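Hey, quick one: can you model this chain's 3D structure?
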Amino acid sequence: MKSIGIHRPAPVETPGLFTQIETEMPTAEGRDILVRVKGVAVNPVDFKVRKGRAEEGKFTVLGWDAAGVVEAVGEDVTLFRPGDEVWYAGDVTRSGSNSEFQLVDERIVAPKPKSLDFAAAAALPLTAITAWEAMFDRLLIDRTATDANANKTILIIGGAGGVGSIAIQLAKLAGLKVITTASRPETVEWVKKLGADQVINHRKPLDEELAALNIPNVDYIFCTSETDQYFDMMATLIVPQGRIVTITEASENHNVDLLKAKSASFSYEFMFTRSMFETPDMIEQHKLLATVAQLVDEGVIKNTANESFGPLTPESLQKAHVLLESGKAIGKITFDGIAD
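Sure thing. Here's the predicted structure for all 340 residues.
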């Protein structure tokens, strides 16, 4: 089968960064399903692995967002059968979706939305899982308590990216007042279209931006951007007994005692935790993706695919990594499967 990958860690400007080669067809065993990949998307995890976590001399296939058709199933599979159309984000410890076929555990897979084609569907799984787990598992927001949530505010730092674009919609679905950050006219327009109630500029001090809206503190903070840049500010802006979640690593040591007087909580969200450790509740990702698919088909959640780069090739994949790594991408970048 055809696969596109890298042989060593490399910066994005490296000539011939990605290579397409023939790799061995995997076999579905146990709870694994073999998927014929028909749509993929890129995420920051792709370039983070590409730049530093890939193993020197080992051909590494990236890609952790996909939609496709089940080709074969392992002997313990109960949720799917060949011919089913599915979507998933996969497992960062396994070979990725930039390939013709991919093995994935059925517990982190769900039927794809019927209203979306494969490339469009591939835009959503990783960001939907991340945003869902961050808000409902880490921030402990009750998504059904819309009346109670109407008096609460959430600040989403970085609203125009893939995760922020879904987080805005899930927060509105839960009844929260949504404040998000954006700095360019096109990103401001994007987050407003997704339902943001207020937009502030992350290139300016966030406390001053919120003060101008007569909002001294917020109940929840969801940071999709630089934790190092915003930690102290988040500690200032959170209400007493409020909750903060971030999805980005910190490279500095931060003073968590800033949160003590407020009894505020701080947590990380990493959507690969369940699959990496095969946690007892691993199947929750199957369930939440099924719910998101239903919400998409009902028109409640808008797709966040914003740019299609056509068939997946080494050249188109490198182009996407350049745009994604620049920090200027809005929404998600998607591809069709590898060309025949």
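One thing worth noting: The chain is about 30% helix and 25% strand.
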